[in-house]
Amino acid sequence: MRPQEKTISVGGIDVHAWVGGQGDPLLVLHGAGGNRGWTRWIEQVAERFTVWAPTHPGFGSSGDADWMEGIDDLARFHLWFIDAAGLGRPHVLGHSIGGWTAAEMAAMSPSSIDKLVLVAPVGLKPEAGEILDVFYYPPAQLLPMTVHDPKTIAEWDALFGHPPTPAELEIATRNREMTARLTWKPYMHNLRLARFLPRVTNPALIVWGREDRIVPVVCGEQYRRLLPNATLSVLDRCGHLPPLEQPDAFARLVLDFLAAPPRAAGGSARS
Amino acid sequence: MKLYYFSEMPHHEFPDEEGAKYPSLRLEFPNRFFDAARAHTNYQRYLDEYELADRVGFDGLMINEHHSTPSCVDVGANMTAAVLGRTTKRAKLLILGNILPIEDNPVRMAEQIAMADLISGGRVLSGFVRGVGVETWWSNSNPVHNRERFEECHDLILKCWTEPGPFRWEGRHYHFRHVNPWCLPLQKPHPPIWIPGTASPETAIWAGRRGYTYVPFLVPFDVARELFDYYREGAAEVGRTVTADDLGFLICAVTADTKAKALEAGRHFVWRMGPTLRGPVEFFAPVGMRSRAGSQFALRARPRSLGSMSYDELVDAHFIIAGTPDELIDRFAHVQRELGIGHLLLEAQESRMDHPTTMRSIELMGAKVIPALAAL
Hints:
The structure holds 2 protein chains of 2 kinds. By secondary structure, chain A is an alpha/beta fold. In chain A, 34% of the residues lie in helices and 17% in strands.
């Protein structure tokens, strides 16, 4: 099933979005690398859910939002996007800074969303270790650090195997600038978020790669402890990009979680 | 043409092979190589050199500020201005400059510059800079806000100097409920403002619009002329005529009793062109710090990095001028003819250039070069 590209106007900002699939709505919030579109895991999840994958303001081909100061602004914006797009009470899945955004949205308005999937989210200060300073490294040096082993990734060549075109470079720069705008200080975390997460009783699935070199896996434990109804799944031989590194296993985890009746979620099972 | 003496107050007191082990001397080179005893001695000699430059007739003493780098341990330009304000008598004190975007308290900065102006009897030339990326990392200031903070910090400092307090400031980046500084500049309405430039057309236009003295640093002549054209564009917007007094240029220069000695001393400038500028582009221009126009201009402005140029090439391109006093007079006059500037800023000490060599160079410039160029 081919996705459609849509433009949704929210607060005067034209938001680009990929939309496709069938079933209940699932809002997918991308990470700092930008909206990678209809990748393999989304295709699988879209067989059971209608996937809405907007490009954050300031990223890709969405409009500017240089007035935003932090991820809390992006969270308020995407709560508005849910209304503007008429999604009702969607499931929300976010990766990395998109995961942080999803967590903030849930903390702000738990009743606006159904189930929550957080994939290697930043947002909490690690109890041990540090979140890698992604702005300190040249992009070409950073990219291989985001995954466990590029050679195992089926979509790697299609996404990164060619020299970027000028248009792609411009978008990559734009994505990095907006990420800096939203996450520079405090770097990639909000000390107050931990105070609000206990409010979020929504069923939540947290997914992490055991070899994540960007965000320490201990943050996954912290999220699991703070969210009252959360499960943590840690994937072996996987870095910071589980949806790309292990698309089939990742899609299966997401589908099982979203399709399960509400009471089945929760606990502290680990795979 | 007026001449200004400048030292970065380097701390080149470590084995070069140690520095070479790190991706950059800035940010990454561990400060366990900082030698406090040598730094104490060096500050004395650097200040002695500035004081001699004042006595021999330099029109100004340029002071700058950097952080987290051995290339410049003048970590407080206003502190140096205050010291020199007391120990020198005549020369202007060109602070070039205070790094506005990384400043969290523009009111305190306005007070400190005012205090230096008062101590020195109204000799401060107040330069404002956006800083290199290293200072953004050092201060953890968001690089995407660099230009906005530069302009808002500038606006608040100017308001402190020109409008009676108390007043409130509610901006985007700065918020002060009660501004009423009890320390105002001696010069009225305020000390002259100088702006350096290396690669930003926006900065040149902005400075031109406001009538600030504009000084490109160590760029090829054609790039400097292009930046001056942007400056004139800004000046034209407000109907202002640009004169030589609005324009300056910075190069490295040293003289000695013989050409051979001067050329030997000039080699010390190579360190600031190469090793001290080595490092990932992210250190010097973190994401979002430069506009697209600025980034594109920077690429054109530096077809070759200074670090990739040999000493001879740096001399040929006028980035370094090293020779007898007569040769300096010729080369400085050439720079003046090429650029039509009224101010020539001389980075005149670097790296391990020793105290006697530096003092002799200052003496010779005062005795021979400055008088010869005064009429230009």
